[in-house]
Amino acid sequence: MRIISKDEALATAQAVIDKKAQDVILLEISEVVSYADYFLICSGRSVIQVKAIAHAIEAYLKERGIRPLHIEGLSEGRWVLLDYDELIVHVFLEEARQFYNLERLWGDVPCTTFEEYAPSEEYAPSKISVALNDY
Fold it and tell me: pTM for the complete prediction?
């Protein structure tokens, strides 16, 4: 299993933004847990969009040689969890995200929001979108 860096976690966030994910945040959890370094949390407006975002993440990371350890919830499409060891991605249907409110549970860890995010040139959206458009 290849280690996922913070830059790769940020680039994965940009990949979900390119799929029109809502309220994208990256939580840095490595200081409080030993099982992962980051939670990437985002929402979709429909079950179809949640599944599309999850498939886009999977395709984006697969192209970089990173495969999930486990995927949960994809068939239902309300809360999809993609476990990449250091990076755990939660893709929620908006209502499910409000109900579980992971941001409140992890409110004491560093959080990156993506209104102000500008990816590095290496992970620029134009380079990411090429991989996603092929999916």
Answer: 0.81
Residue spans per domain, the chain: 6-115
Tokens at 135, concatenated: 């999916």
Confidence of residue 1 (pLDDT cuts 50, 70, 90): low
Please name the CATH architecture into which domain 6-115 falls.
Answer: 2-Layer Sandwich (3.30)
Contact 111, 26 (CB under 8 A): yes
**pLDDT tens for each residue of 69-78:** 999 999 999 9
How far apart, in whole angstroms, are the C-alpha atoms of residue 39 and residue 110? 11
d(CA 102, CA 86): 17
HEC profile of 2-52: CCCCHHHHHHHHHHHHHCCCEEEEEEECCCCCCCCCEEEEEEECCHHHHHH
Q: Which two tokens stand for residue 104?
A: 């409140």
